[in-house]
Design a protein that fits this description.
The chain is mostly helical and 472 residues long. It is built from 19 helices and six strands. The protein is elongated, with a radius of gyration of 30 Å. It binds arginine.
Length: 472
Amino acid sequence: MTTRLWGGRFESGPSDAMAALSASVHFDWVLAPYDIAQSKAHAKVLASAGLLDADELTTMLNGLDALRDKVLDGSFEAKFEDEDVHTALERGLLETIGAEVGGKLRAGRSRNDQVATDLRMFLRNSARDIAALVTDLQLALADQAAAHVNSAAPGFTHLQHAQPVSFGHELAKHIHALGRDIDRFRDWDKRAAKSPMGSGALAGSSLKLDPVAVANDLGFDGVVENSIDGVSDRDFVAEFLFTTAMIGIHLSRLGEEVCLWSSREFAWATLDDAWSTGSSIMPQKKNPDVAELARGKAGRLVGHVTSILVTLKGLPFAYNRDLQEDKESSIDAINTLHLVLPAMTGMIATLKFDTERMAASAPEGFALATEIAEWVVQQGVPFREAHEIAGACVRKAEQLGTDLNGLSDADFAEIHPALTPAVREALTVEAALNSRSTVNGTAPSSVQLQLDAARTTIAHLQSWSQVQPHAI
Ligand code: ARG
């Protein structure tokens, strides 16, 4: 059977090179279950408009259900000649129920509104799948953070020792970045939850079909407001791909930390054998490949968001075939995150940290200098002056080849009369941590509260991720 959805005005079929360029069925087949769900909803409004009788509707719905089962169990497959998923499924329906009834389904719709609708459905469900994997990683981070609330570590700015922090605080920052990514999906979802069905090729349909009924049936919140926009809009793809790229960027920064922490120079973290690799020549090597691949894959994800933006730039309205480029990047972004996220979760969950080594280096590099400045401020000295005083302490300690605690009472008194021996109370890592007990600060008591709140938020995000709007 010739399956092409067009051809009446053509004398010949497409050339091989044309067909090869045009084909999308080798990647858009992932949309098949959504396209069938959409066809069922469309059949119902055709019946409501009097274009299918009750028996025809039953035949159509049963045929579509049978086709869906065959697609899902692999017994119906697309062929290259099908060109795209919509064409393949029409062939499948005609083979299942015959052309007499099957041939009526296409009335009042176009591949333009079909593909825009399928892709919204696919991406909305996929956003939940990705979010669920992100929450798994958040939970692994939360467990590690909880185990290290009371572990001190150097905190960095410019990759130089800055101030000591709770290592739990350091780990937990990633939970919040990833949580915002899921929030981005949730916010995007409000805009993506509108059905383009009923837009037809671009202008709507004269057949008195009911787009609102289709939208409700399919699990959308409503219908796009403008049919021309409905078939042309791909900013829902761009926003989706931005969020996947942002997740990739966040994973790359976490990956970079694991690379640093597991380096010989830091030696804070040991990678589990199951989540690292060896070298083909250097027998001693244990490499952080998961972390490096996460860093590397971020580039690919950024490429995808760039690709869709360039496709859309200056594109005339309404549908143009350029828009077929929206799918491979989206599918690859989803597949990439499905590879990276579970591996990152496994790697994080099994990292072993050398807390003694981290704690020992926490005060190094004069990381307690701010403690002197802030202690002096509490004695009524303006911060401008306090900063100079603390700087003088650092200079003196450097001259003497000691740390700040190595300065004598006389050294302190010589630098400034406000520097009484009581300043030593502030000059411990423990005091430095405990004093930062603001709501978002690094005091272990604060970090514990932050983690409790983060777990509540993760549970909330998890429940969002578990409800798929579009049944297939
Ligand atoms: N495969 C096409 C795509 O992905 C489907 C829409 C084709 N529409 C058309 N008028 N040629 O965009």
